[in-house]
Amino acid sequence: MKASRLNPELRRIFRFVPNPPVTTSAGRSVINGLLKRVKTPSQFDGVSFNVVMLANGQPARIFSPPGSSPPDRGKRAALLNIHGGGMVIGKASQDDVHMADVARDLGIVVVSIEYRLAPQSPFPAALDDCFFAWNALLESAVDVGVDPARIAIGGQSAGGGLAAALVQRIHDQGGVQPVAQWLFCPMLDDRTAGRRELDAVRHRLWNNKSNRAGWKAYLGQEPGAADLPPYAAAARRTDLTGLPAAWIGMGDIELFYGEGRTYAAALRDAGVDCTLDIVPGAPHAFETIAATTRLATDYKARARAWLRNRLGV
After folding, report:
1. Residues linked to residue 146 through DSSP beta bridges, in sequence order
2. Distance separating alpha carbons of residues 262 and 116, to the nearest angstrom
3. What is the pLDDT of residue 116?
4. Minimum mean pLDDT among 14-28, 57-71, 178-192, 296-310: which range?
5. What is the per-residue burial (b if ≥16 Cβ within 10 Å, else e) of 240-263?
6. Confidence at residue 36, expressed as pLDDT on a 0 to 100 scale
7. Has residue 72 got a pLDDT over 60?
8. Which domains does the chain have, with CATH numbers?
9. For 98-129, how does the pLDDT look when each residue is reduced to its tens digit (9 = 90+)?
10. Which residues pair with 152 in a beta bridge?
11. Buried b (16+ CB within 10 A) or exposed e, 276-297
12. Which residues, 6+ apart, have CB-to-CB distance to 120 below 8 Å?
């Protein structure tokens, strides 16, 4: 991918952005070790912040706007957020600044969760953790000031793929349903990783070799097999009817552009309200890497406006 295809606002930042070294266990260990050492703020302007431990030992980071305690308890909308990292790296704390902004700007409670990473914990471990967190949020909704009928599920990259799969699993379980799915450059389809011709394309930040390593670690087998278990890859599902409204955002020069567009079309064909926000010349996760550019801030503002409308805030 030539640098000339990058949006002019992003060229200086992304010209030399490397892919993370996730194709080896040593590389993954280094990245995850560094992430553990990164100090994150313990306070955020305009929101209260605390970390709670769920019953399964899984930490959850909770961002609450002012007024989410009595007498307003139980009246706030909420977002369950799932971090990215190709299924093999990442921590919930990497989304702290973004999630604090969302909680403050929309006046909602945000619960940002950890999950077990592959290959040490392959599918369905990560999805099981997300599902456990969803049920824990429902059970404690009133205590954390949340209206269980107004909860969205979202995430970025691998977190977006997990969010989409989680929505499917919750739909099949029945009961209380999320009102929206909020998917930033989601990692939806393992079959992309099986397309070897994409290996030669220089997709910035996340290329197809990294993608194959992530999917192989998560699935415990080479990606692109004829069949997968339900929920292993959200794009494999053939019946999408009845799922909640979706927002899918991504750049048009990133690896997941094709699978994102295809999934959005499939949702629409199934009668699901789906907004697709495509940013010209933007690579993977540009809204994080180039968070303060006007391109990224405008994109995030559109995403939040959509979520605000869906949550009724």
Report:
1. 76
2. 28
3. 98
4. 57-71
5. beebbbbbbbbbbbbbbbebbeeb
6. 87
7. no
8. 3-15+40-311 (3.40.50.1820)
9. 999 999 999 999 999 999 999 999 999 999 99
10. 79, 180
11. beebebbbbbbbbbbeebebbe
12. none
pLDDT over 60 at 57, yes or no = yes
Query: In whole numbers, what is the pLDDT of the chain averaged over residues?
Result: 95
CA distance 245 to 267: 9
What pLDDT does residue 16 have? Answer: 80
- Tokens 């403050």 -> residue: 104
Confidence of residue 3 (pLDDT cuts 50, 70, 90): confident
The pLDDT of 50-57, averaged and rounded, is: 95
Q: What's the rounded Cα separation, in Å, for the pair 76 and 54? A: 21
Reduced 3-state DSSP string for the chain: CCHHHCCCCCHHHHCCCCCCCCCCHHHHHHHHHHHHHCCCCCCECCEEEEEEECCCCCEEEEEECCCCCCCCCCCEEEEEEECCCCCCCCCHHHHHHHHHHHHHHHCCEEEEECCCCCCCCCCCHHHHHHHHHHHHHHHCCCCCCEEEEEEEEEEECHHHHHHHHHHHHHHHHCCCCCCEEEEECCCCCHHHCCCHHHHHCCCCCCCHHHHHHHHHHHHCCCCCCCCCCCCCCHHHCCCCCCCCEEEEEEECCCCCHHHHHHHHHHHHHCCCCEEEEEECCCCCCHHHHCCCCHHHHHHHHHHHHHHHHHHCC
pTM score of the predicted model: 0.96
